[in-house]
Every structure is written in structure tokens, then in C-alpha cells.
From TrEMBL:
Domain of life: Bacteria
Organismal lineage: Bacteria, Pseudomonadati, Pseudomonadota, Gammaproteobacteria, Oceanospirillales
Keyword check for Iron: no
Name of the protein this chain belongs to: ABC transporter ATP-binding protein
UniProt cross-references to CDD domains, sorted A to Z: ABC_NrtD_SsuB_transporters (cd03293)
Xref: PROSITE patterns: ABC_TRANSPORTER_1, ABC_TRANSPORTER_2
GO molecular function: ATP binding
Chain ranges of the ABC transporter domain: 5-234
The family this protein is said to belong to: Belongs to the ABC transporter superfamily.
Location of the region described as Disordered in the Swiss-Prot/TrEMBL record: 245-268
Origin species: Halomonas aquatica
Length: 268
């Protein structure tokens, strides 16, 4: 079952006396909600996500999951990164089972749990294959199975599909929120890509930079699965671009490019 997340006035400075990278970020994410965090490069998205994962502590304020302050990483709030970080000499099954083995689950029980997940992510026939022989998309599927194996309440995604080809990316953009919805997992994904945010999230939070703050949000009230060519999708996309631009225009010395590098690359 998903967990609630509270951001309680999070401020962060990387060194004492420096300007804050994040400034007084507050908000609440409901159990089972799917949220995308979008903002320009360097605005502090990954820093904030690392705090949700318990990998970093803010200078001021705190993150609470189900009301408890997050002070360390946990298998109940798992993070997926841009790179799958698998052990190349281990099989798909061994990599996917790692979190369970670290948690003390016997090998046979871990393999049983992982097998149903590998089936779910479409890798059942690759169980015994070494991960180094897999494609990037397949490796991210192993990482996804590994993240889900510990039955997390929260799944945190730090641009996990940005290095994948368009087909693998689009399949996972559809499958990951579907899995989270089915299991009631709360999802927070960081992205530069407006289409990815609308494809995956119930709600998009927009961050500004210098200092990083959540300055706007947009509800994505579209049926699943989301289709880029649908009128509803396109009008939300335009709305989000506009909000992004307004956010940017508020800043002195803003760039003519209204969005992050994912969209900027497409526009080029
Ligand atoms: N360990 C660190 N020490 C000092 N400054 C840091 C450190 N980590 C990040 N920063 C700075 O904090 C700011 C926010 O970085 P962060 O990686 O969170 O941004 P981001 O929005 O995720 O960027 P991107 O989209 O490019 O990944 C940047 O200016 C970055 O240079």
C-alpha cells in the first residue's frame, strides 16, 4: 500500500553560508498518488528526490513518509536511477533478488518472489542470463523488478528512462505508472520531459531555480493509458509549456527556451 509524503519547509545549502539550493519547499503527496517533478537543469530536482529517498538530509525542514521523518534509505522507499547499476557478472534473477537477499530472505524464497516480478516486467525467459548481455531497456526492467521486490510503499525515479531508445522509453513510461496504480505505490518521478510528466503522473509539480522551489502545479486528469496525439494530452502539454514559460519569465536573465533539456532537444 502506498505511503503519504510530506515536504515540511525543506531548505538546503550545500555549504554553510552559501545561497540555498532549495528554499522552503512544502507540500503533500497522497498515498498512491503519481507525481512528476519537472524543472530546468540544476533547479534541484535530484537533490529533493535524494532527500525523499533518505540519501541526503536537508539543512532545514524534513521529509516525512507516513508521518515519520526520513533519516535514512529504506527498502520501503526505493529509488531508480538513470543507470540501472546492476552487477554485470550476476544473472537477471540474482540482480533482481539482491534487495531481498540483503534483507535476509532465504535464496529460494527470494527467487520465487522475483520470478513473478520478472514475468511482470517481461523478462521471464531471461532469468538465467547475465545482465551484461541485456539491452539498456531490459536492464532498467531488471532494476524495476529489483525495486519492486521489496514491496515498496514509494517508488522514486530519477530520470530512469532518459538513456533509453524511444521504444523502450515509451513502453516503460506506460508500464511503470500502471504497476504503481495496480499496487497502490506512491510514485515520484523527476524529468525534464513534459510529455513524460503528462504520460506518467496524476499531478505535475513545477520547480523554479535559484533557489529551487515548487512554484506551480498541474493536475493531469486524463484516462490511462495516455496518448500523445489525444486532444486532452496536447492541451495539457500547451498549458504546462505556458506555465513553464511564465515561471521562467519571472526570473531575471531567463532563457528563451521555456523548458528543460529533454524538450529543448526535441525542439532543436
Ligand atoms: N554535492 C554538491 N555540492 C555542491 N553543489 C551541488 C551538489 N550537488 C548538486 N549541487 C548543485 O545543486 C544544484 C541542484 O542540483 P540537482 O542535481 O539537484 O539539479 P537537477 O534539477 O536535478 O539538475 P539536472 O536536471 O541537470 O539533473 C545545482 O546547481 C548543482 O550544481
Amino acid at each position: 500500500m502506498g505511503a503519504s509524503i510530506s515536504l515540511d519547509y525543506i531548505t538546503h545549502r550545500f555549504s554553510p553560508g552559501a545561497a540555498p539550493t532549495l528554499n522552503k519547499i512544502e507540500g503533500r503527496i497522497a498515498p498512491g498518488e503519481l507525481v512528476a517533478l519537472i524543472g530546468r537543469s540544476g533547479c534541484g530536482k535530484s537533490t529533493l528526490l535524494h532527500m525523499l529517498a533518505g540519501l541526503m538530509m536537508p539543512s532545514e525542514g524534513c521529509v516525512r513518509i507516513n508521518g515519520h521523518q526520513v533519516v535514512r534509505p529504506s527498502a520501503k522507499w526505493n529509488m531508480m536511477f538513470q543507470k540501472a547499476s546492476l552487477y554485470p557478472w550476476m544473472s537477471v534473477e540474482e540482480n533482481a533478488a539482491l534487495g531481498l537477499l540483503f534483507a535476509g530472505m532465504p535464496k529460494r524464497a527470494a527467487a520465487k518472489r522475483v520470478n513473478s516480478l520478472l514475468e511482470m516486467v517481461g523478462l521471464n525467459d531471461k532469468r538465467d542470463v547475465k545482465v551484461q548481455s541485456l539491452s539498456g531497456g531490459q536492464q532498467q526492467r531488471v532494476a524495476l523488478a529489483r525495486s519492486l521486490a521489496t514491496d515498496p510503499d514509494v517508488l522514486l525515479l530519477d530520470e530512469p528512462f532518459s538513456a533509453l531508445d524511444a521504444f523502450a522509453r515509451s513502453a516503460l513510461q506506460e508500464e511503470v505508472p500502471a504497476i504503481c496504480r495496480e499496487r497502490g505505490i506512491t510514485m515520484v518521478t523527476v524529468t525534464h520531459d513534459i510529455d513524460e510528466a503528462i504520460t506518467m503522473a496524476d499531478r505535475v509539480l513545477i520547480m523554479s531555480q535559484n533557489p529551487g522551489r515548487v512554484v506551480d502545479e498541474l493536475d493531469v486528469d486524463l484516462p490511462w493509458p495516455r496518448r500523445h496525439m489525444d486532444n486532452g494530452f496536447q492541451s495539457l502539454r500547451e498549458g504546462l509549456m505556458q506555465r513553464f514559460k511564465t515561471t521562467d519569465d519571472d526570473k531575471p536573465g531567463h532563457s528563451a527556451n521555456p523548458v528543460g533539456k529533454g524538450d529543448a532537444e526535441r525542439a532543436a
